[in-house]
Amino acid sequence: MLAASSRSGAAWTRALLLQLLLAGPGGCLSRQELFPFGPGHGDLELEAGDDRVSPALELSWALRFYDKSDINSVYVTTNGIIAMSEPPAKESHPGLFPPTFGTIAPFLADLDTTDGLGKVYYREDLSPSVTRLAAECVRRGFPEVSFQPRSVVVVTWESMAPYQGPSRDPAQEGKRNTFQAVLASSDSSSYAIFLYPEDGLQFHTTFSKKDENQVPAVVAFSQGLVGILWKSDGAYNIFANDRESIENLAKSSNSGQQGVWVFEIGSPVTASGVVPADVNLGPDDGAVYDDEEDEDYDLATTRLGLEDAGTTFFPYGNPRRGDANTYNHPGVLSPRQAATERSSGSPTERTRSFQLLAEKFPQQHAQVIDVDEVEETGVVFSYNTDSRQTCANNRHQCSVHAECRDFATGFCCSCVAGYTGNGRQCVAEGSPQRVNGKVKGRIFVGTSQVPIAFENTDLHSYVVMNHGRSYTAISTIPETLGYSLLPLAPIGGIIGWMFAVEQDGFRNGFSITGGEFTRQAEVTFVGHPGKLVMKQRFSGIDEHGHLTIDTELEGRVPQIPFGASVHIEPYTELYHYSSSVITSSSTREYTVTEPGRDGAAPSHTYTYQWRQTITFQECVHDDSRPALPSTQQLSVDSVFVLYNQEERILRYALSNSIGPVRDGSPDALQNPCYIGNHGCDSNAACRPGPGTQFTCECSIGFRGDGRACYEVEKTRCQLEQEHILGAAGLVDPQQPRPPGLFVPECDEHGHYVPTQCHGSTGYCWCVDRDGREVEGTRTRPGMRPPCLSTVAPPIHQGPSVPTAVIPLPPGTHLLFAQTGKIERLPLEGSNMKKTEAKAFLHVPAKVIIGLAFDCVDKMVYWTDISEPSIGRASLHGGEPTTIVRQDLGSPEGIALDHLGRNIFWTDSHLDRIEVAKLDGSLRRVLFETDLVNPRGIVTDSMRGNLYWTDWNRDNPKIETSYMDGTNRRILVQDDLGLPNGLTFDAFSSQLCWVDAGTNRAECLNPSQPGRRKVLEGLQYPFAVTSYGKNLYYTDWKTNSVVAVDLAISKEMDTFHPHKQTRLYGITTALSQCPQGHNYCSVNNGGCTHLCLATPGSRTCRCPDNTLGVDCIERK
């Protein structure tokens, strides 16, 4: 630490400060303009060498970083980073970003100071001259901030050389980089200043020890691992990570001085992301989300009957405004963007607001709206048919409660079971919903020539979904207008249509649109001049889990006297559907009862005509989706309207159902689910049955008999989600997340999705059932690892499914696994007899992955990763049995030697390959080294060879050995991605595999050089088997079995099982065994225990768990 500078140092600093103050945006930063550094200024010097880390630099003033305010020491490394904690030894050289520790990286690259090739200086400086210089740099980047640092950390990397690796790059000889990072801290905030002098960055890539090639440097910040019970990547911001961006560091700036970059790294606004400076921003460019406190909803009233109209209390009080919340999250601008965008004068974005601004409807005269006139500009979202628009890079556009599927022309989202919506937006079936929004208007009342104008008026609605009842309140409506708006129940009626009770085969508005649409309506009052035009935009679900709506009213309405009441009879309305457009029209009557005078209360009945057009965007890529009925009928069984003069609140309540066009009331329409007298819990969905029968089913997240539902305990994954979102100030999983924040994805049952991805970087990895990352599974952007779920789906209540095997008819069959069951698909020649596919075995509590078939005893063997275990069952029928359940991690691939009567399997958790007898006895580990993610495994029984795949993300390979484990060698190593499935055809001696990384199927003859690409462009192949001229593989993207003709390299047929869930292993159940023998075929090869075949011989081996003299090993 340096308490004060020397006199000459202070003079130098004053000169530098003057230069910075006088510098214009066009001037490059010279080396003399860096902060003072070197031994003469009190710097410590990092030990020379490669991948060096300094001792802890203890700070006299705590550094703030992201959401932490208590960082009291930092570490400096050779490789261009300042660490918030000591980096682990295994992360001493650059690897995948983000690292596990907090990081500030002005130039993260593999740098080298061996043999005096460069120097790294560092210190904490409390001198007034240096703190003043840091304050000026921050002020230039954040002119609106008053910042007086107490402490400044100065780190300088001077004349650093790149690590060259085993083969030196002549182009980098003599190239040196000089750059600086300055961390300034006050009582309440910390800032980072990166300085890149002119000609200070002479190289932009270095040799990576991990990738063994040249990789660009990275400029970034990372929070490191966060969490107490659960560790996961915290927030991080990557600022530059490609050659062009790195080159622009010295040429561009976000603070007005070229080569100087300023970031706010620790303050209340950086809990979820570093904020970069942007001097081009004006004071009003930030975005503020103004959120009102939730209304208190009184659910005491559950009945909505006309007989209660005078006394029904609606679930709204006067709205109360809470404190406005501001959500500012960084939108990081790279140096490349800065160099291009700012030159054109366009403003850059500093913050991202979670509030989607509502479209402002232009003022216009009332007009008749025809379908032909509807413009597509009102579409809230669109499905892009560009070839790049696939689930791989658009999964975030689907709801977290939806699945994404790719089709030939694009992707579609669809809500999972238990949820309803359009896939983009999904809510739990039967769950109450809230709708919030604003209303503005300019309305003439009666014959008045002066309009009544209002805006920013609150609208709130509460929906009891399983009754189809909507309660809508609009606050602060002037008395001069409130009574006259009573007939306009359609203002709230659109919400009733969205959540109307659905009759079989019919869909309400939310199922169709997901609450994302625009609505234009026109009301004509018969016998009264003028019209009223209504425009509404629904923008889906906001960060609080509420639907959002903006409404504008303009035109003229008849005057209704003060104190009058309005009664509207139940009515029906026809909704007509065409592509992305819905229209409806109706004629309605309403009765106005004026306040009583002289004991009489005169009543008058009036009529208005109603027309509306709704535009939305549907997904056109899925041709298999059931088409909407061209016409549906909305039945509004009870309507209640009220204007509260004291509170100035307008209320509408409606009870709605949607179904077929009808005259009268057929018996089917008297089902309690449709008429609302079912008695199901408010957190349950009513499921209609035949006639008047029905069942109540608790919504997702609740348990019970449906009459009474209670909230279920949250899972580990859900708790971790809440913990991370809460720490970042986010309140809903569907809320947009700031850059760099990782939130684990949970499935519909609350379990960790086995493949977790970081949206900001594209990195993906596998996790176990507790959410822990499986080592060696993290893949680079653009590639998803083939992760397996270890959790069996919950068993739904209902008739139990027998676990006994359903015997197979004669012939050859494909057997494939689909989570908790095995299905059979008969073959006729090489053709799949798809209409005869049936379940072979139900084991719903298991997750079956690998399959193997014993053609001698007609037995199928499988691996189960949920227990974990290995089991088997006879094709002739009977109960399945478990043969191995001890000392297993994640058994995946399984193979069988039908001649030697042994099974082999891979275990990707224990990283080993084992062998045992067919009954699971006499286990022996064959390999437990140089395995990372072993999966597919097959045998060549007649030749005594074993083959397996390892989809190790860093070094994928296909290996082979003899069955006794000797003569192990790599068979294929080049041009592999994620080799999953493997099959060996005994008749042609072809070894074939499918690769989910290269999206190819390939084959080779192990005894001959060369390999053949059979087919490219596969979606996401998992497992493969062969029979005759065909390969058959399971595909995770399409959830199908695909047949490929090996001779002509063409897909011939595809089979989609009835249940569209992920398919795993596949094998061929041969009607008879291939001809041949090996040296273990007769009398166990003369071995006392394990007989393991080799080419032309056999080896007798003892199991690992057997001691004594009764086992003899010999060759």
Automatic annotation (TrEMBL):
InterPro entries: 6-blade_b-propeller_TolB-like (IPR011042), Cueball_EGF_LRP_Nidogen (IPR050778), EGF (IPR000742), EGF-type_Asp/Asn_hydroxyl_site (IPR000152), G2_nidogen/fibulin_G2F (IPR006605), GFP (IPR009017), Growth_fac_rcpt_cys_sf (IPR009030), LDLR_classB_rpt (IPR000033)
Membrane-spanning ranges: none
Gene Ontology BP terms: canonical Wnt signaling pathway; cell-matrix adhesion
Domain EGF-like, first and last residues per copy: 669-710
Recorded GO CC terms: basement membrane; plasma membrane
Residue span(s) of domain Nidogen G2 beta-barrel: 431-668
Any one GO molecular function term: Wnt-protein binding
Annotated LDL-receptor class B repeat ranges: 858-900, 901-943, 944-988
Thyroglobulin type-1 domain residues: 714-787
Keywords tagged on the record: Basement membrane, Calcium, Cell adhesion, Disulfide bond, EGF-like domain, Extracellular matrix, Glycoprotein, Repeat, Secreted, Signal
CDD domains reported for this sequence: EGF_CA, nidG2, TY
Main subcellular localisation: secreted
Disulfide topology: 757-764
Keyword Secreted carried by entry: yes
Stretches the record annotates as Disordered: 327-350
Subcellular location: Secreted, Extracellular space, Extracellular matrix, Basement membrane
Residues in NIDO domain copies: 106-268
The protein, known as: Nidogen 1
